[in-house]
Design goal:
single chain, about 300 residues, Porin, 14-stranded antiparallel β-barrel, 18 strands, globular
């Protein structure tokens, strides 16, 4: 307990330090140069509530996004659903399924859909031409394999399609993940190289996908009741960021979560936009989770996810 208290205190100090040092941010020169922004939106309210620091803590159906190697922790069939009520009328829906296949490994499939709502359509003179509904859809097939008691690997193959009015663009991509559990320590290290893929071409111009390197660690203690997590992202189209998060389980039923996400150079939407908070309730094989994320003047995002094991 004393060691856990010191770790929690250290994380709190780090969160205070990065928030206190936030300042006006200079826009990265590569910002806005990548397509497939749907690929950047994390899934699962549990992971988001922990500061999106899940690359080493991933252990459920949502691991396919954060680190497919984490799928090896799923022991039974599992289904997950998420609804993300984003700002400006944007909605994100996710459905995933995991199936362990004995010694062969663990398979998973998922579908994600983002609706941008209804937008006005005009010509070059400003004449009203009605409305249109842009959307993104993402299909995923994932596999995780345990190599030994300490090392596991995973791969996530994805097909992404974006539609804007009558124009469509597609791309294929893969994620490559790995986990290393340090024996007899409760410490897990994780890595995931995300969105390695083809370019998306709208009409005449092609855009690369938002390639990202994600590395991190998770430390479980007090009989796994307390989890501390940290991860670091290095995207090609923005500044690097770091996330810190924690989860505390009470009586095996209620899960309290909090975290902070900081972009080096300052968060675009202000210091408070890095905050994350969440709450989870579980009963037998069912889990219901909620996460809250502020986006400064843009408003707030609310994620609700449900998971069932059978």
């Amino acid at each position: 307990m004393r060691r856990a208290s010191w770790v929690v205190l250290a994380i709190a100090l780090m969160l205070w330090t990065v928030s206190a040092n936030s300042m006006a941010k200079t826009i990265n020169e590569n910002a806005g140069t990548s397509a497939g922004q749907l690929l950047k939106i994390g899934v699962g309210a549990k992971a988001v509530g922990m500061g999106e620091s899940y690359v080493a803590a991933a252990d459920d159906v949502y691991a396919a996004y954060w680190n497919p190697a984490g799928l090896i922790h799923v022991r039974t069939s599992q289904i997950g659903l998420m609804h993300n009520e984003w700002f400006e009328g944007i909605r994100y829906e996710f459905l995933g399924y995991v199936q362990p296949v004995g010694d062969f490994g663990t398979l998973a499939g998922s579908v994600s859909y983002v609706s941008m709502g209804e937008l006005d359509k005009t010509d070059e003179t400003g004449k009203d031409l009605g409305t249109f509904r842009p959307y993104d859809i993402l299909l995923g097939l994932s596999f995780g394999k345990r190599l030994n008691n300490s090392i596991s690997l995973g791969i996530n193959a994805k097909f992404l399609q974006e539609k804007i009015d009558t124009e469509k663009a597609q791309a294929f991509a893969v994620d490559l993940g790995g986990l290393y559990s340090i024996p007899n320590s409760g410490l897990v290290l994780g890595i995931n190289v995300q969105h390695i893929g083809t370019k998306m071409k709208f009409i005449e111009e092609s855009f690369s996908l938002p390639l990202n390197l994600k590395v991190g660690a998770a430390y479980r203690m007090i009989d796994d009741a307390l989890t501390l997590a940290l991860d670091f992202n290095r995207p090609v189209d923005n500044d690097s960021d770091i996330g810190l998060g924690t989860e505390y389980r009470i009586m095996g039923i209620i899960n309290l979560r909090a975290g902070y996400r900081y972009t080096f150079g300052g968060n675009d939407l202000g210091t408070a936009s890095g905050l994350r908070a969440g709450l989870g309730v579980e009963f037998r094989d069912y889990k219901l989770d909620y996460a809250f994320v502020p986006y400064g003047e843009l408003g707030q995002a609310h994620r609700i996810s449900f998971m069932a094991s059978f």
